[in-house]
Write a structure and sequence with these properties.
By secondary structure, this protein is of the alpha+beta class. It folds into two domains: 76 residues; 259 residues, Porin, CATH 2.40.160. A 14-stranded antiparallel barrel has the order 1-2-3-4-5-6-7-8-9-10-11-12-13-14. The relative contact order is 0.14.
């Protein structure tokens, strides 16, 4: 290191003045460029910080709303249990949902075991699965399965259509869970049908325990000609409740309906529904079948007011249906089902 400063000083004196000026200009020019780049970088960082600050504020707002949601979620769930889904959860199948839940008298209802046991399919063996999420809330979700089976030997021997069905349904989440196991039968003689179903309903409410009881439903359907069909259903006609809250959650309900499919590819249905807890409800829906096995559907209900729409596609023995129901206040409820004709 000895003598190093002197050597540098000697080299510096040997540099011509013009070359030194150019070198210094280049250095200062590079420094100016670096400063501009740094200014741009710090400006970008400031913008990023502003964006992150905005994101944080939104995240914080979401956290606060989630904290509030933990307080209001039970209320939302109770609304879902005791208000619209208390009626809607008895409607299974995307087709029925899309047609405004007007299903008491419609023909070809795969989910008739849940709606009107008199309409259980007497022609085909069908396996179906269905799910719907009310208002997009995972806690308010229905899931169901059904199997229909016609007894062909009895038809050949007695000229009597006899069909059987079994189903399973679950609704809710860990704080409230409702489960149903069902079986039913329908008898048809010419234009008249009668059906019965037996259900075992089990309800579990967190902090209150769980209880179960059998429930029985009945229905009838009659064809009047010219594509007109009428139906009547009464649910919860006989039950053995094991608690008062169970009776409140499953009130007796009566429904009368009429359907018309006198025009090829068009079905129109109207229902009037009344139970002992809610006001009279009017429900109406329509379905049209397009070439290629495509279906379009729409409907509405009163008390509460909802509208619904959906579509379906049938390819050979497989059929899928989509539906969405819109509550005027609570929002959208999407549903889907899948059916296999065995």
């Amino acid at each position: 290191m000895n003598g190093y400063p002197e050597k540098v000083h000697a080299l510096w004196r040997e540099i011509p003045d013009g070359a030194l000026r150019r070198m210094m200009d280049a250095v200062f020019g590079s420094l100016a460029t670096v400063c501009k780049i740094m200014a741009a970088v710090f400006g970008s960082l400031a913008t990023v910080c502003k964006i992150m600050d905005a994101v944080y504020e939104r995240f914080y707002a979401v956290c606060r709303s989630m904290d509030a949601l933990s307080c209001i979620l039970p209320g939302i769930v109770l609304i879902g249990i005791f208000a619209t889904p208390a009626q809607a959860q008895w409607t299974m199948g995307a087709r029925a949902v899309a047609m405004g839940q007007a299903h008491t008298a419609i023909p070809g209802d795969t989910w008739a075991l849940f709606h009107n046991p008199a309409s259980i399919d007497s022609e085909n063996t069908i396996l179906g699965f269905f799910t719907i999420r009310y208002y997009g809330l995972r806690e308010l979700e229905d899931q169901a399965a059904v199997l229909t089976y016609p007894l062909q030997p009895l038809r050949k021997r007695n000229r009597l259509d006899v069909s059987l069905a079994a189903g399973f349904h679950t609704y809710g989440f860990n704080l409230y869970r409702e489960t149903r196991a069902m079986s039913g039968a329908a008898l048809r003689f010419e234009r008249f049908r009668i059906g019965f179903s037996a259900n075992y309903v089990h309800i579990r409410i967190y902090g209150y325990g769980s209880r179960g009881s059998p429930v029985f439903d009945a229905g009838l359907v009659a064809g009047l000609g010219n594509g007109i069909q009428i139906g009547y259903r009464i649910s919860h006609i006989v039950s053995m409740d094991s608690g008062e809250w169970e009776t409140d959650l499953h009130p007796s309900e009566m429904a009368a309906g009429i359907s018309w499919n006198g025009m090829k590819g068009l079905l129109i249905a109207v229902d009037v529904v009344k139970d002992n807890l809610h006001p009279l409800s009017l429900r109406a829906g329509a379905e049209t079948e397009l070439p290629g096995g495509l279906f379009l559907r729409g409907g509405w209900t009163t008390r509460p007011f909802t509208w619904s729409a959906g579509t379906g596609l049938r390819i050979n023995r497989i059929q899928g249906n989509l539906a969405v129901q819109k509550h005027d206040v609570l929002g959208l409820s999407p549903g889907i089902d899948f059916q296999l004709h065995l």
